[in-house]
Amino acid sequence: MAERKLKLKRATSPEEVGVSSVAIKELIEDFKKTDVEVHSLMILRHGKVAFESWAYPFTPDMPHIMYSVSKSFTAIAIGFAIDEGLLTLDTKLVDIFPDYNKEDDENLQKLTVFHLLTMTAGKMVSVLTDRTKNQWIKDFFDAPWGFAPGEGWEYISENQFMLSAIIKELTGKSLREYLAPRLFAPLGIRENPFWECDGNGVEAGGWGLHITTEELANFTQCLLDNGKFKGKRVIPAKWVKYATSGLVDNDGAFGSVVADVTSGYGACFWQNGVDRGYRADGMFSQFGFVFKKEDACMIVTACEIGEQITRDCIWRHFEDLFVKEGSKQKIKEISSLPDLPDLPKSKIRSKYEEILKDKKITLRPSAPLEALKFPLSVLPMYTTFMSADKAGYYNNFMFDFEENECIMSWDEGDEHNSIRCSLEGKVSFSPLHLGGMDFNASASACWINETNLFVWIRPLGAIGQRRLRFEFNSDGSATLYSSTSPALNKVAIDLSSTFTKKIKLALAKNIVSSSFTTMAPAFLEPKHKCRLEDR
After folding, report:
1. Cα 356 to Cα 161, 232, 256, 362, distances in angstroms
2. DSSP line for 326-371
3. Bond from prior residue into 60 cis (ω within 30 degrees of 0)
4. Up-side HSE of residue 28: CA atoms within 13 Å toward CB?
């Protein structure tokens, strides 16, 4: 009963609360036209849900990876700790972690909680840091300085990991344990949502939280109402006002001039451009927008690495989205988000189905990928690259074919999985445990000809889809081709700026960027010659 009371109220129509159903329809059509893969969309106004939709196979009760939206939750935890007198914005990091103090490091003596919250710390932790070593705190202190604390701005997710570590150090509780009675329970968020951790059980802080669309909606509605939810105080009002304001200048962030990423940064909240409120923001277009003037919120979960592409879709329809309450509804039925594509139904059945029932497909892992801690997994690489417990390397594939499904089994390290794959142009669902994480996976398979078997696997709650093509050869061998959706070359284009931002010469930057985007996908997803061995 308590959980039901915490659910948001639903409007009978978007127009009841002054949201245009026509503008919603046009927004969804824009997403389709622009090829933005949206997993869920929820629009709130005046405390009610005006519109909600999920793209199949995603569902309302399914937690979704939040990436850097996690930072905003971590910042709220720091707000609670400040309100309870555990620390202040001026608390120095070395006072909390004296074992890592270096008295001759002048920058380290200046580093405070405020700097961590606002991305002005100056520590340049590499995205390629090996997190499987389980020394994340040491990695932070050992990282080089890009600038003195407070004298620059750089988006480094490990800043928020250190905030998570601070909560654990000061309270003896994990970040989730600390937030459970203060934030999760009052907002109807599950007591212990999945949150990626280091090897010592400290939540990543800057990434890794998995929650549902409505759980994020409750969070944004609470922020919109100055820290109250359902009329009850949850977050201190002064912290909401402080954290969501533009505390520091981030002009030129990511080498961009786009207003949405250069209009100011708060305590882990971004200012939207053109006076359009603020947002919690995560990679691949996870958004919790708060539009104060319109008394509205918008939640988006998606799989579009070009976040500005997604935001621009929204801004193109923003002015038409909010109308006078009770306006006459102009369309009877609003479009839903489109289902995500899966393999088409094929009537082809291959002789290899009989051959494979007694065989397993083995391969030799790529030594460079193993050395770099980027082993190929059924999980897309961008789900695992910052994980402490990386999945992979996949091997020992086995197939068993039934009338309408096939069962694919395989090994990754000490983990073994079997999933069902629909052969009917639909998806089948199976539990999946990889990289220390539990997923519900949708999968489909299809023979595109006598010798080529396609398998598409989507770990729901994560980002992207793993696509495997097994090509069986007449000499009894096989070749495995691995790819992802979205394709790695598209992701590489967006991420190339991370590896070139310190290069001053334009020509050199273009050469490095071009090489990275051209070579990285082939390196990270090599084809494998495989053997068919007896099981």
Report:
1. 46, 61, 52, 12
2. TPPP--SSPPPPPPPP-PPP-----THHHHHTTEEEEEPPPHHHHH
3. no
4. 22
Closest of 443, 449, 354 to residue 407, by C-alpha = 443
Three-state secondary structure call for residue 164: helix
- pLDDT tens track for 161-188: 999 999 999 999 999 999 999 999 999 9
> Which residues make Cβ contacts (< 8 Å) with residue 376, sequence separation at least 6?
365, 366, 369, 392, 393, 394, 482, 524, 525
Cβ 487 vs Cβ 535: under 8 Å: no
Instruction: Say what angle helices 69-83 and 213-224 make with each other, to 10 degrees.
Output: 50
Rounded Cα distance, 314 and 530, in Å: 46
User: Alpha-carbon distance 448 to 350, whole Å?
Assistant: 10
Predicted confidence (pLDDT) per residue in 252-292, tens digit? 887 788 999 999 999 999 999 888 999 999 999 999 999 99
Query: Mapped to the 3 state alphabet, what secondary structure does 16-72 carry?
Result: HHCECHHHHHHHHHHHHHCCCCEEEEEEEECCEEEEEEECCCCCCCCCEECCCHHHH
143 Cβ contact partners less than 8 Å away, ≥ 6 residues apart: 123, 124, 125, 126, 158
